[in-house]
Amino acid sequence: MPNRAFAPRSSLDTLAASLAASISQLAIADAPLNLEQMRRFYRSLSLSTADLSPFRHFDDAQYRRNRIHIDEHFELLLLCWRPGQRSQIHNHKGSLCGVKVLEGVATETVFVQNPSGQVCPRETREMAAGSLVINGDLDIHQVANLHPDGTDLVTLHLYSPPLKKMELFGLEPQQQRVFHGADSVEYQI
To answer: Could you read off the pLDDT of 43-66 as tens digits, one per residue?
Structure first.
């Protein structure tokens, strides 16, 4: 069996003890996480955005994905959003996705796909700091920071298994395409 020890790019000393312990518990798993394991992970966390400062990086052009940890069963990222930034409309093809809002207010729009292939908004909700949402692999959504200038958004994303590909959608069926995840720490969707 391969060594599944927690080995982020920066040392354990830079991580909050709560986060390091929670990741170490997840690393014991020998299969992708289920919904209840993901909920337990988020409930076990007791940290602030300051605890994640080694991974807190913004990009003024587009939101930024900052990888904290990846192994064969899960991937943990800190996403940093400036006002006005949003993801494309997408699903998490093959991965369960948990999103916890740490700072700011996230706006999530959930879409449904009709028989002709078009996606239509079904509901939009605002998620304040502390909110948690877990999406299935085929749930279609878009996340955005729609708040005024100077109001950043920071979200903690857990994918299990790691996000390898997803479908990206436009409002017309011919705009649908597949995105293949990159090994880069900072890839965008």
So the answer is: 888 776 678 888 999 999 999 999
Residue 57 marked as a ligand binder: no
Domain of residue 66 covers 12-180
74-97: b or e for each residue (b if 16 or more CB lie within 10 Å)?
bbbbbbbbbeebbbebbbbeebbb
Q: Is 5 contained in some domain?
A: no
Comparing C-alpha atoms, which of 132, 152, 167 is closest to residue 56? Answer: 152
What single-letter DSSP state applies at residue 85? -
For residue 119, what is the domain's CATH number? 2.60.120.10
Does the pLDDT at position 145 exceed 50? yes
Residue 187 domain flag: no
**Residue whose entry in the numeric block shows the structure tokens 């003024």:** 60
Q: What is the pTM of this model?
A: 0.82
Task: Tally the domains of the chain.
Answer: 1
Q: Is 73 annotated as a binding residue?
A: no
